[in-house]
């Protein structure tokens, strides 16, 4: 568990099985920003109903890259569902980027999507619609209530692992082999 003043940016939140909120049940969220004002992150294991090709088309951006256009867009969370968030590697500067960690960025500007469509984007990227947000002290409270586990982030989980394997794999990286067995013991002394 994290102390209230710990900065959780660049950490994964792993929802425990008892978390009933449909927005976060069995979710894995990357915390991109965390300070005294609250926290912002992107759920990285939920598919939206859109492909990247559909999103690009709605934005008037064309691409001949069939694999890129067929890639799944994530449902990044219940906040700002009309906005796109691109989690990516690389060091290139984009109009609106936040450095989450060394080599890991969150970009919200159109220029990165245009570059990706032209085959000039970052080597690894995932696109999400929407994000998750927590008010001041809310995430710390939820951690204290044993709603979430935290784990270090890694590129394989973000960019390569199939979505349906990310929840249990993230927990396994911190030694929790079965989240449901962990749930059986929560609340017992």
From TrEMBL:
It comes from the Bacteria. Pfam families: DUF179. InterPro entries: AlgH-like. PANTHER family: UNCHARACTERIZED PROTEIN YQGE (PTHR30327), UPF0301 PROTEIN YQGE (PTHR30327:SF1). Belongs to the UPF0301 (AlgH) family. This is UPF0301 protein CSC65_15370. It comes from Pseudoxanthomonas daejeonensis.
């Amino acid at each position: 568990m994290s102390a209230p003043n710990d900065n959780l940016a660049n950490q994964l939140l792993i929802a425990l099985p008892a978390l009933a909120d449909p927005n976060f049940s069995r979710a894995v969220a990357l915390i991109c920003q965390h300070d005294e004002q609250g926290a912002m992150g992107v759920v990285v294991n939920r598919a939206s109903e859109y492909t990247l090709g559909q999103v690009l088309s709605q934005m008037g951006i064309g691409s001949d890259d069939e694999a890129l256009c067929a890639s799944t867009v994530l449902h990044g969370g219940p906040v700002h569902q009309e906005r796109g968030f691109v989690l990516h590697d690389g060091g290139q500067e984009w109009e609106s980027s936040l450095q989450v960690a060394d080599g890991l960025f969150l970009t919200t500007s159109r220029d990165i999507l245009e570059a990706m469509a032209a085959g000039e984007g970052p080597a690894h990227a995932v696109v999400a619609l929407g994000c998750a947000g927590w008010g001041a002290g809310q995430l710390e409270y939820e951690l204290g209530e044993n709603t979430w586990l935290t784990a270090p982030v890694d590129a394989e989980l973000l960019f390569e692992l199939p979505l349906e394997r990310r929840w249990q794999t993230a927990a396994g990286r911190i030694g929790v082999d079965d989240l449901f067995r962990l749930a059986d013991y929560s609340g017992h002394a």
